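Section 5.1 Outputs to date
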Amino acid sequence: MPGWIRIFIAYVAAAIAGGLATTLLSTQVVLLYLAGAGADIPLAARSDAMLADLTGFAPTLILLTAIGYLLALPVAALVSRLVGGLRTIGYVLAGFVTILVMVTAIEVYYQSVLGVGITPIASARAFWGLAVMALGGALGGWVFARLARARSA
């Protein structure tokens, strides 16, 4: 398979994996906030929340993750070449940072442009929630590192 096709497939798979994982982690953070406030959340409600986020939130998050990866993954590749290694770690960090930057940019947009003082993504209201979400982006970076690796013949 030509190298550019392998890279493209790895990129698409990474964006989907990163976006889906970030969505599911975000859902769990919100459910944890609700449980911490005293809400009883049965398994059926948890499943419904995950399904609702996978159908409602995930498509947008996958698209935004794909856009972020367009910048982050080539930068990680360049840095990896310059330092002579750490390829997988670089892609994992690039995925993590992609989510951090994306969610922060959304907040800045809401506050600066729209003049709304809310955090539009509830799971990112505390830094730990944002960091948990970013683990989904890190997973996407790992998927890219694994799939984009040139195979030996």
